[in-house]
């Protein structure tokens, strides 16, 4: 039971960092970015090639360094930001709405196909493995205690990221992103450089994605194309949507709800009459059931509660209006 | 020339899928991401019926009917209600992505995630003009051409086609003149679903295998063709499909230095998206259109 709790909390913290990063891009900037999972993957792959050492005979991959884990994480985050800068500078310049989404979908599939097919890069479909208990031997931790240590580390990183996002949320930058989302033209009229602002938000979001990917790689101790798929991004989007797009408390709540829903709902399903046999028939049953639930939640929330459970707070000017303006607005 | 022969087969399947997609886009102004799942549903229906009856014609009909029903269900349960509720095209885009996810997983629940082998006897290949085609290839190309011609006759000659064009060009104006836009859109989805379902059937038999995810992969290429030709423009989409289909078959056959002269067909998606990104950045309205949205010009 404790083991289960530890793994849920660790996964939840990593998932939460991913969702907070996505919230910058979708919640504040308002762009439906489908390439986001690519940045998580870049972070994970980079962390591995920087820590697991040179490749052994049939395996081949780039770099193959044995850097200390924290340094590898920093470089991995930097790489994810660099990739996001390239994709973002192409996609954000003129494209909005579904055209932006389509181009980012293209970008993530290019990353996915290259990671999976171009063997010299990250060993193609076999992927990378061999990052065991990073930083464990610094403190002389055995396997059991290490699980607690890593849970603590993930939660600590999540809390730091959350506090940072809290600051960003109320900062001029965070406000500027929101204004832009609401009305790009008005925002530009007030002197905002839309392209640079959007690009900044995009790269910041991708940095969190890369960070979460680096933790994910250490948690799984391996990463390969079957560990991720561009379509998985739907899970993150549903978490952000259910909690409340744009509100970091909402995002945290969404991660909690979707995490619990995904973990627990499928646990009870096989006991329903008629479904018990199917579970025995093939192993993907539970995973597929999870997918159906997530997809339905996404569609239903979009239709009936697009603002989420904890909606973003609207900033209302509570000071009374000057008399003349008040009269004007009343008659308008 | 062999490669080009395959290119023609891919292009004709792609043409059906892309035209069906562009028709849906035309009447609703919404990109239906779950379009690929219509093909998948068609392929499964064809496979099941083929197993029971052993008749390829019955399988083709089943694929078309299943595709039509799937498309109608998508329109009446998700896309239509979202449009009436006033959701933005991006929100509906996200919703149809959710629908696509649901359908893929429902298919996994019932049929498993593994590839299903679906092989018809292709017959001995022979030279047709400059191309080397099997009789199966010929049937695929001929049926795709026949369906395309029939579709264009429907769009250009019938009253329904006229209504379809009117709704595509200006939904509000069409409604003012007494056209029931919702009904026209639903009928268009059924028509597009019939075509896409059949496209799923011929795609499955030309590839030889399919899985719950196979339509989504092909949708990404469909999207490239439709955007390259100009979203909403049926003629442009046809041309886009032929160009993309041929490029996808020719480019992987070219020697590429860094992979040692061999490029896996899996790079298709990456190539398709490179084309797509270029087209969107350089000519976002498509290669052949100047107007904003046109279905038949």
Broad shape of chain A: globular
Parts with pLDDT < 50 across at least 5 consecutive residues of chain A? none
User: Which class of secondary structure composition applies to the elements of chain B?
Assistant: mainly alpha
Number of helices of chain A: 14
List low-pLDDT spans of chain B.
256-263, 291-297
- What's the end-to-end separation of chain B, in Å? 33 Å
Strands of chain B, total number: 4
Distance between the termini of chain A: 62 Å
Model description:
By secondary structure, chain A is mainly alpha-helical. In chain A, 70% of the residues lie in helices and 1% in strands. Chain A folds into two domains: 1-228, no CATH class; 231-332, no CATH class. Chain A is built from 14 helices and two strands; from the N terminus they run H-H-H-H-H-E-H-H-H-H-E-H-H-H-H-H. The radius of gyration of chain A is 22 Å and the shape is globular. The mean pLDDT of chain A is 87. In chain B, strands 1-4 form a two-stranded antiparallel sheet. Chain B has a two-stranded antiparallel sheet with strand order 2-3. Chain B is mainly α and 297 residues long. Chain B contains eleven helices and four strands, in the order H-H-H-H-E-E-E-H-H-H-H-E-H-H-H. Helix content of chain B is 72%, strand content 3%. Classes of the chains: A mainly alpha (332), B mainly alpha (297). At the A-B interface, helix 4, helix 10 and helix 13 of A face helix 3, helix 4, helix 9 and helix 11 of B.
Outline of the structure:
Chain A is an all-alpha fold and 332 residues long.
How does the SSE layout of this entry go?
The complex is a heterodimer of chains A (332) and B (297).
Chain A: H1 2-28, H2 36-51, H3 69-94, H4 97-117, H5 119-122, E1 128-129, H6 143-170, H7 172-182, H8 184-189, H9 194-220, E2 222-223, H10 233-243, H11 248-268, H12 276-281, H13 285-304, H14 323-331
Antiparallel strand pairs in A: 1-2
Chain B: H1 2-28, H2 35-53, H3 56-85, H4 89-111, E1 116-117, E2 126-128, E3 131-133, H5 135-157, H6 159-169, H7 171-176, H8 181-207, E4 209-210, H9 214-229, H10 234-250, H11 268-282
Antiparallel strand pairs in B: 1-4, 2-3
Helix pairs in contact in B: 1-5, 1-6, 1-8, 1-9, 1-10, 2-3, 2-4, 2-8, 2-9, 3-4, 3-8, 5-6, 5-8, 6-8, 9-10, 9-11
